[in-house]
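I am writing to request your help with a piece of structural work I have in hand. I set the record out below, with my sincere thanks for your time.
___
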Amino acid sequence: LIGMGLLSIPILTSPDFNSFSEMVRAIGFQRNFLGYLLLLIFYYLNYYWLVPEFYTKKRHLLYISILLVCFVIITYLPDVIFKMQGFSPDPNMPLPKKMEGIPPESGLEMPKAFKKKQPPINIFELRDSFLIQFITVTILSMLLRLDNRLKEMQNEKLKAEVNYLKAQINPHFLFNTLNSIYALTLKKSDQAPWAVLRLSEMMRYVVTESHSEKVPLEYEIQYISDYIDLQKLRMGRHTDFEFEVKGNPSKKRIAPIILVNYVENAFKYGINPDEPSKISIFITIDSKGVELIVENKITVKQNDLLENTTEGNKNTKKRLDYFYPNKYRLDIDHRPDFYAVKLYIELT
């Protein structure tokens, strides 16, 4: 758009605008069009090379020197090419009648209007030097480049934060599952090998998939299922547990390890071998996205877990904001004896 705008200026301001053939033959139009074409080339040169290589690296003196060279080229190259310095007459312009037929050797002087005038170069002649246009293009290309660089830095910062959050999440899962397996080994349970296999599958998912931006939704649901199977090992007979998945997850992709935090919270708050517990987890997939509903009765002391849970929720919220801006709905109902989460993510 900027290129089209620059190249349209000499066309729209030409006095021969109504006649295209006359306009393109006019030396003045050719000179102006070349000047704006050089401005356009300078715009891209400044945007892609000069600003990142000189201005942002604080090589300001060299940057200003190159700008001055570019300004001189843009201002005087069209004049050099079309020989339009001064007021050179058109060779086809008819002479006044009183000069017709007078040979050059007669000694009579040609009128001053028909003499080639060679004024000294005036760099401040705004109309001929493209000074205003050059300053405008310089500032515009610089601001756009700096704004683009700022967005790139913000995006890199967000990616670094997401990678850091993943690094925080993974050891936490490992700690919880190892606790469950440790309890099985103490009991010398036959379920210990099965639990180790489940843990192996979970760790394979974490290592191979968690660094991807998106993974198949069925992988994420399988990861949650494996996590739930391991947590069932420490459920007592007083726990009322319900887990259900509805819908077809195929051909849908989701950010990895983004749902399980809320499932994990239910087991943190909702399992107590000395009290009746209730945990309900529902995953519903529709044509546009996935819905997760987690409800549990709070049966443990909140002070022991509140800080870690709050931090985990903040981390998940940051990841949701990063991967699904304006594409998710999150409702959390936290009461003294009840905790519920309803999360819907648009995946299309």
About this structure: The beta strands are 215-216, 239-246, 253-254, 277-285, 289-297, 328-334, 338-346.
